[in-house]
C-alpha cells in the first residue's frame, strides 16, 4: 500500500500560538583594544561554570560555530552582526528579567537554547588543519563588523537566522505566531542550489511512534501507520504549520524536532512499510539565510546590503551608542 501526505501550497494557513589533527600553533590576531574590557558571562554546559569571555573572543567562537569560515568575508561580517545583535539582545533581556537557570550568566553555550559558541580549543578541533586560515577569516570579520548591532526602534532586533531557506524565507508571524516588522518573507532563490537543499529521511514506523510519544506522551496513534498523519496545514511556501497525529496536534517545528528533520518544510510518504520524509532547506526559515547571504556576497553584495535584504527596515548602530 502506498499513501502520500502532500503538505503543499494549496493547504490552509494556520498561525500557531508559539513564537582531526591539530594545526601547528600559530600566533592569532591580536584583540582590538576597544573590546578588551567588554565581556559576556557565559554559562558553559560542560563544566557548569560561568566564564567571562571578551566580546571579540565570543563573537569569533559564535560565528565559527554558526557559519562555515569558508564563506565569503561579507557573509561572515553579516553573521558577526547577527550573532552580536542576538547576544546583546539576550544579555539585556536577562539583565532586566534574570533567568534563575543561568545563575547570573547572560546566556549559556547550549545551542538547543541559545546560539552556539566554540572556544578556541573547540575551533582548533573543528577546523583541523585549516584552523589558522579559518580563525584569521573569522577574526577579520569580527574586527571589521564586531562593533555593530542591527536595531529597530533603538533596540537590538531579534536577529533570527538559519542555514538554508526553501527558496523564500518565512515570516515570524507565520512560523511563530507573532508579527515582527523586520522578520518578513523575502526571496532567497539561491538557496535552491544549495547542497542537500532537498533531502529524504526514511524512518521505520516504530521509530516514528517512539519519537511522537517522547514529544507528547499522551499521543494515541491508530494501528495503521498510514492513518497517523492528517489535517496537514502549510504556508504557501510549503512549511508545515500544523499536523494531527492520532489524537495530538503538533506544530511543524515540533514535528521537525521530534523526528530530527532538517526543516519543517517537508512532505511525507508512507510506502513499503516505512515513512519517507522529504525536506527542503535547513532550519526554521525565518530571518537571514546563511547560504543565501553567502550567495549574495559572491555576487558582490556588501554585508550592509545582505542585512538590509533579510532584515528590512532595520538600521546599523554602534554597540557603544546604545
The number of distinct structural domains comes to: 2
Low-confidence stretches: 1-37
Average per-residue pLDDT, rounded, comes to 89
Helical content (DSSP H or I, runs of 4+): 25-40%
Structural class: alpha+beta
Strand arrangement, major sheet: 1-12-13-8
Please give the radius of gyration in angstroms.
Answer: 21 Å
Topology pattern, helix = H, strand = E: EEEHHEHHEEEHEHEEEHEEEHHE
Mass-distribution shape = globular
Strand content: 15-25%
Number of helices: 9
Q: How many β strands by DSSP?
A: 15
Description:
There is one protein chain. This protein has 322 residues and is α+β, with helices and mostly antiparallel strands. The chain folds into 2 domains: 1-19 and 160-313, no CATH class; 35-146, no CATH class. The chain is built from 9 helices and 15 strands.
Task: Tag the structure with descriptive keywords.
3-stranded mixed beta sheet; 2 domains; alpha+beta; 322 residues; single chain; 4-stranded antiparallel beta sheet
How is the topology of this model organized?
Blueprint: E1 2-5, E2 39-43, E3 50-54, H1 55-66, H2 73-96, E4 107-108, H3 120-127, H4 131-145, E5 148-152, E6 155-156, E7 161-162, H5 172-176, E8 198-203, H6 205-215, E9 229-234, E10 240-245, E11 248-251, H7 252-259, E12 266-271, E13 274-280, E14 288-289, H8 290-298, H9 303-310, E15 315-318
Parallel strand pairs: 2-4, 7-14
Antiparallel strand pairs: 1-12, 2-3, 5-6, 5-15, 8-13, 9-10, 10-11, 12-13
Helix pairs in contact: 1-2, 1-4, 2-4, 2-8, 2-9, 3-4, 6-7
